[in-house]
Amino acid sequence: MVLPEYLVVFCTAPAGEAEMIAKTLIDARLAACVNVTGVQSCFRWEGTVSTEPEQLLIIKTQHSLLDQLITRIRGLHSYDLPEIIAIPIVGGYAPYLDWIGEETA
pTM of this prediction? Predict the structure, then answer.
């Protein structure tokens, strides 16, 4: 299986952490761009259904950086089990995709 070159990684975080995580990933060149937006998350945790306001980080990166990115997020994140989900980018505007590569080189 050929792995895609670029990924979108989703991560939810408390509002007070999201911007710090985003800036750290950009500074380390683990991400080219991180969008941060508010979401309302509903989930079951330790047997209880909860609804919490969170920030969603939408992270654009290279597949080759995924393990480093996960490690960095886990080190910065306050949750015991942070959401970190990677989805391949299967197409898009070529100059933008090239830019992701340049910014994460």
Answer: 0.93
